[in-house]
């Protein structure tokens, strides 16, 4: 089963993404910011990482730069979804 690491400082956003992806058959893991994301990405080696851009401690852009230059196994896709794509009504 493909695995996805979803990263956002908003628990609501993580829950919505987890619900949708798990319903579609993906294994979902979550992280709360870029620092947590680096640790979990190294440990879990997910197939895809979906990350917010604006987060405390380390943002999604900094994470992506660190991950690309420091990894031996490149995650297949690193899409960046700014939180502005998610309606605030969720």
In total, the number of strands is: 3
Q: Distance between termini?
A: 27 Å
The side-by-side strand order for the widest beta sheet comes to 2-1-3
Structural class: alpha/beta
Name the poorly predicted regions: 84-90
Q: What's the gyration radius in Å?
A: 12 Å
- Assembly context of the chains: single chain
Fraction of residues in β-strands: 15-25%
Mean pLDDT: 76
Helix content: 25-40%
What's the helix-strand series? EHEHEH
How can the largest sheet be summarized? 3 strands, parallel
Silhouette: globular
Please tell me about this protein's structure.
The protein has a 3-stranded parallel beta sheet with strand order 2-1-3. Residues 84-90 have low confidence and may be disordered. By secondary structure, it is α/β, with parallel strands linked by helices. It is globular. The chain has helices spanning 11-23, 34-44, 60-70, and strands at 3-7, 27-31, 48-51. The N and C termini lie far apart (27 Å). It is 39% helix and 16% strand. Helix 2 packs parallel to helix 3. Strand 1, helix 1 (11-23) and strand 2 (27-31) form a beta-alpha-beta unit.
Question: Outline of this structure?
Answer:
The protein is α/β, with parallel strands linked by helices and 90 residues long. The protein has helices at residues 11-23, 34-44, 60-70, and strands at residues 3-7, 27-31, 48-51.
What keyword list fits this structure?
90 residues; alpha/beta; three-stranded parallel beta sheet; 3 helices
Which helices and strands, and how do they pair?
Layout: E1 3-7, H1 11-23, E2 27-31, H2 34-44, E3 48-51, H3 60-70
Parallel strand pairs: 1-2, 1-3
Helix pairs in contact: 2-3
């Amino acid at each position: 089963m493909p695995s996805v690491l979803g990263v956002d400082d908003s628990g609501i956003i993580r829950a919505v993404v987890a619900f949708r992806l798990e319903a579609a058959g993906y294994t979902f893991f979550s992280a709360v910011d870029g620092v947590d994301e680096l640790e979990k990405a190294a440990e879990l080696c997910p197939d895809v990482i979906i990350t917010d851009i604006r987060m405390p401690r380390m943002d999604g852009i900094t994470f992506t730069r660190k991950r690309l230059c420091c990894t031996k196994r490149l995650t297949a896709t690193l899409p960046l979804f700014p939180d502005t794509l998610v309606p605030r009504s969720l």
